[in-house]
Model the fold of this input.
Amino acid sequence: MVARMILMRHGRTYSNARKHLDTRPPGAELTEIGRQQAFDAGRRLRNVTSDIGLAVCSIAMRAQQSLNLALLGYGAMPLDVPGVGKPNIPVEVISGIHEIFVGADYDDVDSPEAHRQYDIAFEGWQSGDLSAGLPGGETAGEMLDRYVPALMDAYERANGKDLFVVTHGAAIRVLCVHALADTSITGPHIDNGSLTVIEPVGEFGQWRCPMWASNTSPLYDA
Done:
């Protein structure tokens, strides 16, 4: 089986709860709900892979917190006891895989105008428009230019094993819309704590995605 990229969206944050756009690191921390989501995602990760070569996260605080909690869940024995048997997996915080930036005028804002501009950009991202973005923010193309090289470098350093990545919702969507051969699966919402599995087979744009933004265990074991 080809080594995979397993992408997790961070747990719920205080900005998520307030409906603030939050894209400039370090950003908000996890709520108690978000901490539980991250831990639970780690428990579900056990059913996805038993062979993680490297675990990485973005520089955002919520991603770092989520990665730590997910690995606690991944190693918990029994499964309802957090922090027992944390796995011996190399962990790194890497630059380049943070969220697509919405611009200084809209970051940490919850106004109707901010959400209207975000909805417009979102439609462009989902359609594959590389120039889509909020006024003053990053375009999809600019995000991919920093995101893909960082992701591929981490994948190579996983040494033939699965790469676990804690990252961000819009970033996962933009990546997959351009990376996958079948983009029809990328429509559903990416929940906090969900897991997406990518098989980077062939050229970028021809990759496969056997599991999209799932909050439940997949139907196969690895």
About this structure: The beta strands are 5-9, 52-57, 91-93, 162-167, 195-199, 208-214. The first strand starts at residue 5 and ends at 9. The two ends are 9 Å apart (CA to CA).
